[in-house]
Amino acid sequence: MLTRRHIRVKVMQCIYALIQSKDDSLEKQQKFLKISIENMYVLYLLVLSLLVELHRLAEKHVQHASKKYLASEEDGYPDPEKFIKNRLLVQIASNKQLQQELSNRKLNNWYLNEEYVKIIHKEIMGSDIYKTYMTDTANGYEQDKEVIIQLFKEIIAPNEKIYEYFEDDKLTWVDDIPIVNTYLVKKLKKASANSNENFFLPALLKDQQDMVYANDLLTKTLLNDAKWEKEIEGKTPNWDNDRIAEIDSIILKMAICELLNFPSIPEKVTLNEYLEVAKEYSTPKSSIFINGVLDKLAKEYKSTGQLQKMGRGLQ
Asked: In whole angstroms, what is the distance from residue 168 CA to residue 149 CA?
């Protein structure tokens, strides 16, 4: 679920938090990193469970509407129960492994905060996406899947109330929300009628080596801070350290650390990844500055033999 780029961002956030708090405890930062990464999976589960709760609320709505004496807009649809019969939605809502995972982690957020589910449900029912779907007599898994993806992308994911709720719950989720939402959309697109329950519960990390990489990157960047500082100074003679933004400085130090301490990661991968992180978290001018500094350093490390890369096709 998490890529190496996401891990780099998590490490960057940890180092930034350490600087802001002026707490030099490496142990605390390692713990914060682990929790921050694990909480990303919790966020994924909460977003997925929001679909479960929407299905549950939609069922209540249909049951309530069937007992009304006055006709409603729902009565005009060919099948008023079409939405609650949506195959993808039912597939997720009836996923026993998901239910067990939510129960084990005591994630009953939407039960305790049902007003958020009601806000989303109301928006969905009033949307043209929903009305078009409900009036269309075409029926099939692909059509069901397409409408859930549309509703998620255009109504659920952009909802400010949901965003504010997550932001208030955990500040680190501010950067995680777009990543989780994008991942879930990709997951939904790949779903099929034959997808098993495990399909919706992916592994957070590719393997344990990713967590080792995260800890090593954090530790080696922090423990060699003074060394990386000197490396940057040597390539920015016209810049005072105070003029280099904190985020830019952190990105540079992490990139230098990775170039010199992670021989299995190709040089181009490191340079490209940190340039992308800079584009996302720094200004356009900063990303150009970072690219220039890293390019100079990489060339120097090559010429002095400091850049030692192992593996096929690596230098």
From this structure: 26
The percent of the chain in helix, strand and coil, each rounded to the nearest 5, is 75, 0, 25
247-251: long-range pairs with CB below 8 Å, 24+: 247/12, 247/16, 247/281, 247/282, 247/286, 248/278, 248/282, 248/286, 248/289, 248/290, 250/12, 250/15, 250/16, 250/19, 251/12, 251/277, 251/278, 251/281, 251/282, 251/290
How far is the CA of 228 from the CAs of 89, 124, 225, 294, 308, in angstroms? 50, 51, 5, 12, 17
Give dist(CA 74, CA 96) in Å, integer. 30
Q: 231 or 74, which is more confident?
A: 231
Q: pLDDT tens-digit profile of 228-263?
A: 999 998 887 665 555 688 999 999 999 999 999 999
The DSSP string of 41-65 is HHHHHHHHHHHHHHHHHHHHHHHHH
**pLDDT tens-place string over residues 109-131:** 999 999 999 999 999 999 999 99
Q: Where are the beta strands (DSSP E) in the chain?
A: none
| Pairwise CA distance, residues 178 & 106, whole Å | 24
- Please, which pLDDT band fits residue 209 given cuts at 50, 70 and 90? very high
Q: How much is the pTM?
A: 0.90
